[in-house]
Design a protein that fits this description.
alpha/beta, Rossmann fold, Helicase, Ruva Protein, domain 3, 2 domains, seven-stranded mixed β-sheet, two-stranded antiparallel ribbon, about 35% helix
Length: about 260
């Protein structure tokens, strides 16, 4: 580990806590399943995944230095190592699980990639991310009614999102500024993509400026302000309501 240097440009923070590594690998059933690990680094978590006997294991890594380490470490195994950007990786498996420790700056793009952009969605994902992203995803559970664009999109794509554990910043080398959290996403398989596209477009407009009212955001879009105002009133909201306060089940009414 002394010779392996984290690259700030890639947001690398290597998890060195053995208990945390074991907990992450043990948070889903790996045996005889197809597993995709994103950003494995030098393979600390990979070793725990291998011990659980997956049917297959794909590693997606962008860092050339880490690729050299992984190729050498697993050269006599059946592990498939992909040297590429995960946002350009499109799984061909129809059933698989994802495990990842991803940096703050690319967390949302990776979540949207696997949950919305690719054809074959995962069955489940175990993702370690910084707590700031988790707070956006889980906002609606922390307050009576309070959503974000990210929380609505994640809830739309998943049956459940479960907290596995908190990982303190001291568990990493180098330690990040804030703690991380491990979430388990149980992904929906039967989904209406046409309806979801309409919802996501509406949410993008509605949350364009989160501190403004829903009507203020809608005003600069192709949506009819008068029609949206009528629907707001019909659903017993104040005209000054913000998008964050709209109940998840009511958004379909605005389409």
């Amino acid at each position: 580990m002394e010779k392996i240097k984290a690259k700030k440009s890639l947001g690398q923070n290597f998890l060195i806590d053995e208990v945390a590594l074991a907990d992450i690998a043990g948070s889903l059933s790996i045996q005889s399943k197809k597993i995709i690990e994103v950003w494995p680094g030098y393979g600390a978590l990979t070793d725990y995944i291998i011990d659980a006997s997956p049917e297959s294991l794909d590693l997606i890594e962008l860092d050339t230095d880490m690729i050299k380490i992984l190729n050498d470490k697993y050269k006599n195994t059946s592990i498939i190592i992909h040297h590429q950007d995960v946002l350009e990786f499109y799984p061909t498996y129809e059933q698989y699980s994802v495990i990842a420790n991803i940096p703050y700056y690319i967390t949302s793009p990776i979540l949207f990639h696997f949950l919305y952009k690719i054809e074959h969605k995962p069955d489940e994902m175990v993702i370690m991310m910084q707590k700031e992203v988790w707070e956006k995803i889980m906002e609606w559970r922390n307050k009576k009614i309070h959503h974000s664009f990210l929380s609505l999109c994640m809830e739309q794509a998943c049956h459940d999102i479960e907290i596995i554990r908190i990982v303190p910043n001291t568990s990493f080398n180098p330690p990040p500024k804030i703690d991380s959290i491990v979430l388990k996403f149980q992904c929906k398989k039967e989904r209406d993509s046409e309806k979801e596209d309409k919802l996501i477009h509406l949410w993008k407009v509605a949350f364009a400026h989160p501190r403004k009212t829903l009507l203020s955001n809608i005003k600069w879009s192709l949506y009819s302000t008068d029609e949206i105002r009528e629907k707001i009133i019909e659903k017993w909201y104040d005209e000054r309501v913000r998008a964050e306060a709209i109940r998840k089940e009511d958004w379909n009414y605005f389409l």
